[in-house]
Design goal:
By secondary structure, the protein is mainly α. It has one domain. Helices cover 75% and strands 2% of the residues. It has 9 helices and 2 strands, in the order αααββαααααα. The protein has a two-stranded antiparallel sheet with strand order 1-2. Helix 7 packs antiparallel against helix 8. The longest helix has 26 residues. It is globular, with a radius of gyration of 18 Å. The protein starts with a helix and ends with a helix.
């Protein structure tokens, strides 16, 4: 029987290191179309995201802006071409949809970020921009914000780990991670950029391993929904 450390290593290897199968590349014409669509979508999406994150908390326009952002990512992904769900490793060496594995990975990410939040909460210059971002949930409707958060998480993965990843011939993990982080620079919140880089890297590695978008989608929405619901009380613990 393996110990906890060995189990964690085996889990990381199966979830983020060892690919299930090599993906089938797009034909040249389809690849060109995908690249054109993702390029246009990236420019529009980055602009809409910067606008959405600068809307004052409590303003109903925030809901419209974030829904528009989800529409940009999702539409760009769908118009780019075929998207695959992908397969993951099981503990017995078989292959199946990476549902439980992705939930566990999202939970691990959430735990790491919440521990980090205990440090951030003690540094006002870091905490204040995070509080400003969370004010959208405090002053608005939490169920609505949660729904939009989940919707945007799905749309982002369809685009970044689906369409954009498939459009890149080389270094897809690195490029999608960097571009995903750069789209949040317009928010003016350094910790959001860092969070995007970490989540982007993890989901990109998942995409490489599973060959599809299902794993990244589940991991992303587990993390983002958990952060929305649990980060405010964690920050309040050390006020």
């Amino acid at each position: 029987m393996r110990g906890p450390v060995a189990e964690l290593r085996a889990f990381i290897d199966a979830a983020l290191v060892r690919p299930v199968a090599a993906p089938q590349p797009d034909p040249p014409a389809a690849l060109l179309r995908r690249r054109l669509v993702v390029a246009v979508s990236l420019v529009i999406g980055a602009a809409v995201l910067a606008w959405a994150l600068r809307i004052r908390p409590g303003d109903a326009l925030f809901y419209a802006a974030t829904l528009a952002l989800a529409a940009v990512w999702a539409l760009g992904a769908v118009l780019s071409g075929r998207l695959r769900l992908g397969l993951g490793h099981t503990r017995r060496g078989a292959r199946q949809r990476p549902v439980v594995q992705s939930l566990a990975l999202g939970g691990l990410l959430l735990a790491v970020f919440l521990v980090g939040a205990l440090v951030v909460a003690r540094v006002p210059v870091l905490r204040e921009p995070v509080d400003d971002l969370l004010d959208h949930a405090r002053f608005g409707s939490l169920p609505v914000v949660l729904g939009i958060t989940v919707l945007n998480g799905v749309a982002e993965e369809l685009y970044f780990r689906g369409a954009l990843y498939a459009a890149l011939p080389k270094h897809a993990v690195a490029v999608t991670t960097v571009l995903y982080a750069l789209t949040t620079v317009g928010s003016g919140i350094p910790l959001l950029v860092l969070a995007a880089a970490v989540v982007g890297l993890v989901t990109a590695l998942q995409r490489r391993v599973t060959g599809g978008i299902l794993g990244p989608v589940i991991t992303h929405i587990t993390w983002s929904a958990g952060m929305l619901l649990l980060l405010p009380p964690v920050l309040d613990l050390v006020r």
